[in-house]
Task: inverse folding
């Protein structure tokens, strides 16, 4: 099992969610984060004083998947979240050791 | 004939009361404007300051301020205060009828109209010292300002003192209220110092954006509305054709000046920064209003618009200028009320032929000198006795926690998670 963690642009969330749903993924966790990679920030103005906004708002998704779905998941996220412009984000894949469904106590692949 | 006198008295009294109520509403305007322009961690404190100062002003003015500002007698510089107001009393019907129109409003209504002006002057100070002053130091200052400092200079002009005798013109208070408040604010800010991190050692100016633009805008609109009472009520009479026309013109000119201020500030910000700046635009509206406050009756509506526009341009440059001088004023109060207050006073002779630049200059210098020095002394004493500034750590955590023990937006600033 793998944990796919993807940082994407916030306005792409709906597109990504739809694509994931198309390939059969039914559970995602979403968290609002801030960050920058090579995109860097932008400057804003307030009463004549400039200030740099370094950390840009992003969305991080976490999806637990069976190994068999990993490739499609990555492809789905990539194609839906891509704009071609700098700041599109990154996908990280972790090995997932153990999964438990709280309501029923199921573990492993059945809990995904 | 008696019936007419009764009716006119009632109407003029009513007018005073309603105008006073509109000016009271400006306290809500200041509260919202300031709450919107400070950071969320400092919001509760500034709201507490605003409601408390209004209450303290109401009481101090009732106890002694009104008696100092409108004494039964005085030598022009020193009033011989009449401190009996707090015990009540008003005009007897028979006396009113016998006065043949000279006594045309309730004494109580005059107090009510005046007390809301003190509160306005005092609330100018709260914005300038925001985000780093101790709450109780501010309230201590409020007692002195509303009980003595404001009333004395008010006496010199509106109470019939020497400034009035010298021909100084200030219809609704560009000097007596706005410049006075700004002078007290400046004295406080100089002793207080800038917010931590506002100015860099290399001369850079760091932006500290306000938390709530909708509140700031709402506050400005509320002040705009209240100003119709501020200027309109200062005509002091409504109940005949000439007076009614005058009041109507004052309303129109007040609105025109505010509008001029908005447009001018908006364009100035666009020209200087390349983008519209809402906070400058809001300050522009207030600048226009302050500018016309010294003389909202004499100008034509188009001239009132221009006076307001000049105020709008001046305020933008004043705000930038104060920052360059490292005088930290989070809401632009000193610029709006002080710098533009001066413009408002000096503009009077341009439309009012009875005014002279000399008398205007005398008035503004006296008001500034008295208010600034008396305020400076008061702040200095408070500073020596109790300190006026919160500690660096308290400033970092926000004065809401250190002075009030409470957060303005607990669900959004981490104090308490939503859903519980």
Result:
């Amino acid at each position: 099992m793998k944990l796919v963690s993807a940082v994407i642009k916030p306005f792409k969330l709906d597109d990504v969610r739809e694509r994931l749903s198309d390939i059969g993924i039914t559970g995602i966790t979403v968290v609002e984060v801030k960050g920058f990679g090579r995109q860097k920030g932008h400057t804003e103005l307030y009463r004549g004083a400039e200030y740099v906004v370094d950390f840009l708002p992003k969305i991080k998704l976490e999806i637990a998947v069976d190994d068999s779905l990993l490739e499609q998941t990555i492809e789905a996220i990539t194609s839906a979240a891509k704009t071609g412009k700098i700041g599109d984000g990154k996908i990280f894949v972790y090995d997932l050791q153990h999964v438990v469904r709280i309501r029923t106590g199921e573990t492993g692949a059945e809990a995904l | 004939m008696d019936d007419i006198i009764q009716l006119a008295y009632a109407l003029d009294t009513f007018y005073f009361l309603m105008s006073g109520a509109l000016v009271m509403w400006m306290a809500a305007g200041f509260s919202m404007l300031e709450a919107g322009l400070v950071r969320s961690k400092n919001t509760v404190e500034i709201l507490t300051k605003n409601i408390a100062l209004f209450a303290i002003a109401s009481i101090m003015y009732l106890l002694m301020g009104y008696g100092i500002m409108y004494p039964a007698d005085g030598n022009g510089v020193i009033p011989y205060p009449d401190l009996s107001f707090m015990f009540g009393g008003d005009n007897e019907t028979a006396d009113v009828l016998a006065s043949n129109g000279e006594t045309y409003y309730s004494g109580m209504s005059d107090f009510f109209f005046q007390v809301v002006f003190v509160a306005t002057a005092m609330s100018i100070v709260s914005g300038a010292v925001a985000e780093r002053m101790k709450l109780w130091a501010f309230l201590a200052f409020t007692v002195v300002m509303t009980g003595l400092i404001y009333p004395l200079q008010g006496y010199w002009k509106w109470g019939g003192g020497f400034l009035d005798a010298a021909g100084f013109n200030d219809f609704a208070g560009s000097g007596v209220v706005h410049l006075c408040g700004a002078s007290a604010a400046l004295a406080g800010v100089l002793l207080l110092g800038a917010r931590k991190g506002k100015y860099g050692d290399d001369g850079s100016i760091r932006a500290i954006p306000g938390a709530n633009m909708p509140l700031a805008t709402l506050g400005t609109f509320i002040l705009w509305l209240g100003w119709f009472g501020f200027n309109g009520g200062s005509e002091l009479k409504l109940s005949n054709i000439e007076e009614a026309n005058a009041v109507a013109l004052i309303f129109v000119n007040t609105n025109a000046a505010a509008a001029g201020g908005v447009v001018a500030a908006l364009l100035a910000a666009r020209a200087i920064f390349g983008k519209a700046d809402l906070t400058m635009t809001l300050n522009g509206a207030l600048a226009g209003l302050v500018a016309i406050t010294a003389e909202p009756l004499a100008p034509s509506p188009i001239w009132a618009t221009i006076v307001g526009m000049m105020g709008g341009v001046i305020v933008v440059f004043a705000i930038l200028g104060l920052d360059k001088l490292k005088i930290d004023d989070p809401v632009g109060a000193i610029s709006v009320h002080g710098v533009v207050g001066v413009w408002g006073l000096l503009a009077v002779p341009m439309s009012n032929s009875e005014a002279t630049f000399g008398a205007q200059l005398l008035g503004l210098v006296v008001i500034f000198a008295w208010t600034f020095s008396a305020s400076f002394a008061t702040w200095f004493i408070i500073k020596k006795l109790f300190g006026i500034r919160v500690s660096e750590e308290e400033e970092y955590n926000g004065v809401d926690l250190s002075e009030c023990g409470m957060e303005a937006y607990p669900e959004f600033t981490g104090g308490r998670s939503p859903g519980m």
Remarks:
- The longest strand of chain B covers residues 73-74.
